[in-house]
Amino acid sequence: MKNNNIENIDKLNKFPIVAILITGAFLAILNQTLLATAIPHIMHDLNLTENTAQWLTTIFMLVNGIMIPITAFLIETFTTRRLFLTAMITFAVGTLICAIAPTFMLLMIGRIIQAAGAGIMMPLMMTIFLLIFPIEKRGTAMGTVGLVIGFAPALGPVISGWLVEHYPWRALFYLVLPLSVINIVIAYFVMKNVTKRTFPKVDILSIILSTLGFGGLLYGFSSAGSYGWTSIAVVSSLVIGTITLTGFILRQFKLKQPILEFRIFKNKIFTLTTIIGMIAFIGLIASETILPIYMQNMAGFSALESGLMILPGALLMGFMSPINGRIFDKVGARYLLIIGLTLLTVTSFLYTRLTEETTLSYLTVVFAIRMLGISMIMMPATTAGLNQLPTRLIPHGSAMTNTMRQVAASVGTAILVTIMTASALRTGEKALPMEMIHGVNVSFYVATVLSLVALILSFFIKGTSPSKDSKRISA
């Protein structure tokens, strides 16, 4: 298909396209955390060690993170319809392989194929939303994206926790597979071409450098918690990642058609909102990682209770994201970000007072308020930043935003978990719960400082109301 097949956006029936995109992205993101509580069952069934089994989660995040940076190139090379169908079919094939995999190696291959499709989904969805909706309605549209980002990862452990108690772990993939197939069939009939193809030159060296750079950093930071910061695997992957990523960035400035356009960081608002979004994502992922560890290993709660603690906050975030989007369309991002980051900072501080006796209701209520704050940050910050970019750079902006969040989640979680372990008064089998909980409290002190930094930055966000002419970077 050629560019003249691009649909007239004003005449598009947007609802089916939005529904298909949200469903596809929801299934893709759900799979990041779907195996969280199923790992012990897979270990037992396939006779795996914990470190080996964790690769099922790590490899998904790793491949996902590697695919995201090159989606801007893919969006500019293929039609919207073809790219979406290819991503969803790839994801479905990976899901099928996971469901029937008799061995760990085949299960890993399935997860890699799943992640290759999933990595394309979020940047593609954000790009399409920004193209089919006028600037004054983008907040509402992107609010639905916030629903997916916040709700899907939090729902994963709850669904898997319930399913693996009643059914074999393969049921997780058999649940996702038919939903993926239905999505593909409907998309075949309703998906339209809305992105403009510019046919950028394939720069193989950039793709190799991007893969090694982002892959090295993501693997290094995500493995630091398991192997320690001084292990050869962690140090070497961080060094290789840093060197190759530097080479990738420098190369992009020399290319006429870069794989990923780093010049967008010349725009002050885009840069500030990206940093704020990264810190908010660290707050989201870190609390969803650290709190279950604290609850199950130190405070005597069950896995199901830790999953249920997250659920009300996830539901609240899902409910509030579209509402916050409408507020954004009226007043812009500044006030939403200030209020949201204040809530994130306060709730981070409230989690620095945890003890063995902290109640489930306290943890749940504070987490719900925290998710309310995050819902006021994530998509308003993203939309405010992407609104600064000319249309031709939106694929690069959405790919960059998602890449930075993936890196932030990996780096932030690794650092906070390391702080939690290193600052515990005592570790090992003889350690008392309160001695280990001290480390959890210290990690949330660090999270509080990070949130406070983002709160200060939010006061510099100005001119993001859709009713005003925002200063955009030059095309």
Walk me through the structure.
- By secondary structure, the chain is an all-alpha fold.
- The protein folds into three domains: 1-200, Up-down Bundle (Growth Hormone, Chain: A), CATH 1.20.1250.20; 201-258; 264-475, MFS general substrate transporter like domains (Growth Hormone, Chain: A), CATH 1.20.1250.20.
- The chain is 75% helix and 0% strand.
- It is built from 18 helices and no strands.
- The chain has helices at residues 14-33, 39-46, 50-53, 55-67, 71-77, 80-100, 104-132, 138-166, 171-190, 204-227, 232-254, 268-297, 303-331, 334-350, 360-375, 378-386, 394-422, 433-458.
- The longest helix has 30 residues, at 268-297.
- The chain is globular and about 65 Å long.
Comma- or semicolon-separated keywords:
475 residues, mainly alpha, Growth Hormone, Chain: A, 3 domains, globular, disordered C terminus
Helix and strand arrangement:
Elements: H1 14-33, H2 39-46, H3 50-53, H4 55-67, H5 71-77, H6 80-100, H7 104-132, H8 138-166, H9 171-190, H10 204-227, H11 232-254, H12 268-297, H13 303-331, H14 334-350, H15 360-375, H16 378-386, H17 394-422, H18 433-458
Helix pairs in contact: 1-7, 1-8, 1-9, 4-7, 4-10, 5-17, 6-7, 6-9, 7-8, 7-17, 8-13, 8-16, 10-11, 10-17, 12-13, 12-15, 12-16, 12-17, 12-18, 13-15, 14-15, 14-18, 17-18
* Helix percentage: over 70%
Fraction in beta strands? under 5%
What's the CATH H-level homologous superfamily of the largest domain?
MFS general substrate transporter like domains
Report the oligomer: single chain
Can you tell me the number of structural domains?
3
In CATH, the architecture of the largest domain is Up-down Bundle
Overall mean pLDDT stands at 86
> What class, by secondary structure content?
mainly alpha
Topology pattern, helix = H, strand = E: HHHHHHHHHHHHHHHHHH
**3D shape:** globular
Which regions have little confidence, pLDDT < 50, spanning 5+ residues? 468-475
Q: What's the main sheet like?
A: none
Q: Fill in the CATH topology of the largest domain.
A: Growth Hormone, Chain: A
Distance between the termini: 26 Å
Instruction: Report Rg.
Output: 21 Å
**DSSP E strands, number:** 0
- Name of the CATH first level of the largest domain: Mainly Alpha
- Count of alpha and pi helical runs: 18
